[in-house]
Amino acid sequence: MFAIRCLGVSLAFFLLVYVVFSVAVVSGWRQVRRVGNRLSARRLATLLFILRSLPCAAAVLITLGFVVPSFLLLEPRVVAEPIGEIPLTLGACCVALFAGGAWNAIAAQMRTSRTVAGWLQGASAASGCDPVPLFRIRPSSPALTVSGWRQPRVLLSNAAAALLNQQELESALRHEIAHVRRRDNLKKLMFRSCGFPGMAGLEAGWSEAAEMAADDAAVSNGGEALDLASALIKLSRFASVHGATLTIGLVEDSGSGLNARIARLVSWEERRVASSRSLFPWYLAPTFAACILSMVVIYGGALSRVHDLTEWLVR
Ligand SMILES: [Zn+2]
Fold first, then answer.
1. Distance (Å, rounded) from C-alpha 177 to C-alpha 217?
2. Which residues pair with 248 in a beta bridge?
3. Per-residue pLDDT at 13 exceeds 70
4. Which residues form the domain of 129?
5. Can you give the pTM of this predicted structure?
6. What percentage of the chain carries pLDDT values higher than 90?
7. N or C: which end of the chain has fewer CB within 10 A?
8. Distances (CA, A) of 113 to 117, 120, 275
9. How many angstroms is it from 42 CA to the middle of ligand 1?
10. pLDDT number for residue 104
11. How far is the CA of 254 from the centre of ligand 1 (A)?
């Protein structure tokens, strides 16, 4: 009975923290991005990813760091207290949330695997994209994409390869390698597993920043930037593909996002990439250390407060 109560209360708290943080992120991420626009694309993408993961991370941290220990340490085990309706209902909703997240992630993975297997029929291995395996595929779309997160592969259609010159192709492949290095497909899988209504805008913002970050990683001078811009224009004629959620291509968006990327590459500046502000400036380090220290000092008191809350919830 004690274990079931502990589980019920922990799940109920997980759900509450998850919902509160999700609502805060959905309503406030645009303001954070406005401030983050001064950052480089790479750091903006990291910031948006942290924001997107925040509800899940906070729920895990608070549940495992505070709720479970406070229950185990402070809850008397002898009292045969029945579990109330509120924690029971919230706990059941939390189990449904986990099941829905797992289902979303598995379905996206299966759909992607099926679609990619179709693209790879009759494909041939090629070189020039080390350290990631490159395959030349028969369908014209996707023109150029990276699939998978455990064993990523870059797929290049024969039609796209025929359109690009050597420099354009090399720039485009470096863009795909940057997606692999930043594990962007794994991040997309994580988004699928912790869904919440209203997160689509933040995910689109992250996707846009991730594309620009991969562009920045692919070019190191104005000439390479023009090559990549030219590859983007040439490959934008291929229709975007559906059904493969966990792939990330060279051209993810054919609208304003693509125009913004091309404009950025055409006016590429080395200084802009090199001298952008740090996501966590050095002067925040003492503040961060002070937070950790005060957390250690007040931990005992916080456990007792959390236990009061769980008591209130159980009744
Ligand atoms: Zn891309």
1. 9
2. 146
3. yes
4. 2-314
5. 0.87
6. 57
7. C
8. 6, 10, 40
9. 13
10. 94
11. 12
Residue 148 Cα to ligand 1 midpoint, Å, equals 14
Classify residue 48 by burial, with Cβ atoms within 10 Å: 0-12, 13-18, 19+.
buried
- For residue 233, is pLDDT > 80? yes
CA of 236 to the centre of ligand 1 (A): 12
User: How many Å lie between the centroid of ligand 1 and the Cα of residue 174?
Assistant: 10
Q: What is the pLDDT of residues 181-223, one digit of tens each?
A: 999 999 999 999 998 999 999 999 999 999 999 999 999 999 9
CA of 277 to the centre of ligand 1 (A): 23
149 pLDDT higher than 60: yes
> Mind spelling out the 3-state secondary structure of the chain?
CHHHHHHHHHHHHHHHHHHHHHHHHHHHHHHHHHHHCCECHHHHHHHHHHHHHHHHHHHHHHHHHHHHHHHHHHCCCCCCCCCCHHHHHHHHHHHHHHHHHHHHHHHHHHHHHHHHHHHCCCCEEECCCCCCCEEEECCCCCCEEEECCCCCEEEEEHHHHHHCCHHHHHHHHHHHHHHHHCCHHHHHHHHHHCCCCCCHHHHHHHHHHHHHHHHHHHCCCHHHHHHHHHHHHHHCCCCCCCCCCCEEECCCCCCHHHHHHHHHHHCCCHHHHHCCECCCCCCHHHHHHHHHHHHHHHHHHHHHHHHHHHHHHHC
Distance 179 CA to ligand 1 centre (A): 7
Query: What is the total count of domains within the chain?
Result: 1
What's the CA-to-centroid distance between 17 and ligand 1, angstroms? 33
Q: How far is the CA of 306 from the centre of ligand 1 (A)?
A: 44
Q: How far is the CA of 183 from the centre of ligand 1 (A)?
A: 12
